């Protein structure tokens, strides 16, 4: 009976060891997946930052063009006023 109990305990220990190894393997896999996700997230953040920078540059360019157009319109209005006088 003692022998059977020891065998049962040994089986339980072996299962626990295998379960532990399986969990460690799964944890390692999850850590690798998290690391890859963090890398991907960093890349996406860099892309977004670049896109924001490009959008800001376009906004500056459009603002400059609009100001130039307004200045031209004002100049034309002044010329028209001068010609009418």
UniProtKB/TrEMBL annotation:
Coiled coil: 20-47
Superkingdom classification of source: Eukaryota
Assigned keywords, A-Z: Coiled coil
Name by which UniProt lists this protein: Uncharacterized protein
Organism, as annotated: Rotaria sordida
